[in-house]
Amino acid sequence: MGGPVRDGRAMIAAxxxxxxxxxxxxxxVMPDTAPQLLxxxxxxxxxxxxxxxxxxxxxxxxxxxxxxxxxxITLTVHSDLEGVGLTAAVATAxxxxxVACNMVAAFHHDHAFVPSxxxxxAMDVLHALSASSK
Length: 134
Known about the structure:
The protein is α+β, with helices and mostly antiparallel strands. It has one domain (8-132): VC0802-like (2-Layer Sandwich), CATH 3.30.2130.10. It has helices at 8-13, 34-40, 57-62, 86-96, 119-132; strands at 17-28, 43-47, 50-56, 70-75, 102-105, 110-115. The relative contact order is 0.23.
């Protein structure tokens, strides 16, 4: 695997979005559900109001935690955490199509969480965005 890509246009051209077949839900972690949620979370974030976890929607259902379901689209380019433009381009393209987008950056990749029922449309938008940058 090569090193991280920092150039914005290069990141967009190489993003190669991949759709995760599972559905995910953003939930607030409470003491009674913390062991299950934190054990299954793919991401957590601490805010002043509490801890948010992104967990499989199926687990949230089992625990009686309602909320909208999201599809995770991984931008498979190894994006540099100091690179500029990938998140903005993705969010702007999806916004232009009327698709909500919650971005999460991790060490190797960026991940776009979009409403599950709009996942295929979001993938089309992102493929077109990537092709236009090549």
